[in-house]
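To: structure desk
From: M.T.
Subject: fold request, one chain
Message: Could you run this one when you get a chance? Sequence is below, nothing fancy, just the single chain.
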Amino acid sequence: MTDPSPTHRAGRFLPNLAWRLIYGLYERQLERQVRAQPMPGHIGLILDGNRRHARETGLRDPDLIYQRGAAKLDDILAWSVDLGVRRVTLWVFSPDNLRRSDAEIGGIFGAVESKMRALAADPHIHQRGVHIAAMGRRDLLPPALLDAIDKAEAATRGNDQIAVTLAIGYGGREEIADAGRAFLLDCAQRGLSTTEAADQFTQEAIARHLYRADMPDPDLIIRTSGEIRLSGFMLWQSVHSELYFCDVNWPMLRRIDYLRAIRAFQRRDRRFGS
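Reply: Done. Structure tokens follow.
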């Protein structure tokens, strides 16, 4: 059988080219709308849908599954820097995830470790002024991953254009429990009685003992994969956050999806409980 003629080939690919053109025009329109309004200062992302994406694409190797998810971080950084978002927090791994198989946990940890080492050495990270940090229970993470995180944080400590925090080994209930524990230990070190400690146990006291007490609350929280819940992400800090649930799986998140989430945030009337 001979190859199709150039005319037939052009006709076969024309729908794809047309869709790319339409999406390009739509993306530019979205971007104009988003740039015309104030940006969220802090965006939280719940990275969900790696396994669904793997099932849909026939990908079985846990290492490859999570490497594909880790690669999406590059896009988020580029989009956020370009739009002027100053802080992004990404929920990578929770204590509940420890119930998964050893192969899957190893795939997650391996992908994050590789990405942290790559980011620490990436000149674009420094050109963009990206500062990398982490929060969560360090005792749940393997030494090699902790080393990679610490080196990425040290390598980017002087950068101040955008702060990127990995919530890894992180759970919202665990964070609040750990904050209460830290508060009680502080009271004990100061020799306070139980009654005196109780008198000082305020919202402000809890906030001072969260994993990253200096972090502003997220303005917008985005969850991918179509699940409509927070699952414990930043329970204390999200009380006034705007929530956006996106059907697309994390590895397939597009700039259009990110822009839509920000536009939805900009269109909401934030009253902070008033």
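Reply (cont.): Residues 1-36 form one domain. Let me know if you need anything else for the meeting.
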